[in-house]
Amino acid sequence: MVKPVSQGSSAGITNKSIVNNLEELKEQVKTITQTFSAPALVETFLPGRDFSVPMMGNPPKIYPVIESNHTTLPKGYQPIDSLEVKWYLEEEGGSDHLVCPPKIDAELKNKIEDICKKTWNALNILDWCRIDVRCDDENNPHVLDINSPCGMIPPAISMTSYFAFSARTIGISFEELLKTLIGTALKRYSK
């Protein structure tokens, strides 16, 4: 898997990000470094399930986890949350691959929540973030990246902005979510 060392919203992550040989690796690293004027990150591709974990508060509360079910993507799409998936497929009403909350057993749910809480604490994250997690072939979750701050687009513009999407599944409106975020930061500053 080849991607930019930093960016957001899946910039630089495309169908060509999963490489299978040295030639593809060299070409994708070249594309990333030239496009973003920064180094490329090369990591082992994890073939398991893909989750986004929204968190808010000090200490954090975990909002409903979102699974990207890549088995429902159209033919030709790689099983990743690529730029094409996030900004073309999802925004054109194709959000069927987003499952919130996902069907996961208690053991996997606990592992995901545990690794996200440990990541939050290790990085001293404050107020809110979204942590992307993907499982290996033995169903062990690994942190892919931390989105802090993460995108939060109003539903009038995007129905698939992950944090707001998660909150809506438990009856929290976008406005309520913003108030909670502001209240979280104010509470921290008032101490």
UniProtKB/TrEMBL annotation:
**Highest taxon listed in the record's lineage:** Bacteria
Q: PROSITE patterns attached here?
A: ATP_GRASP (PS50975)
Species per Swiss-Prot/TrEMBL record: Candidatus Shapirobacteria bacterium CG07_land_8_20_14_0_80_39_18
Q: Which family does it belong to?
A: Belongs to the D-alanine--D-alanine ligase family.
Entry's Gene Ontology molecular function annotations:
ATP binding; D-alanine-D-alanine ligase activity; metal ion binding
| Organism taxonomic ancestry | Bacteria, Candidatus Shapironibacteriota
Keywords on record? ATP-binding, Ligase, Nucleotide-binding
The record's listing under InterPro entries reads:
ATP-grasp (IPR011761), ATP_grasp_subdomain_1 (IPR013815), Dala_Dala_lig_C (IPR011095)
- What positions does the domain ATP-grasp occupy? 1-183
What PANTHER family does the record tag this protein with?
D-ALANINE--D-ALANINE LIGASE, D-ALANINE--D-ALANINE LIGASE B
Q: What is this protein called?
A: ATP-grasp domain-containing protein
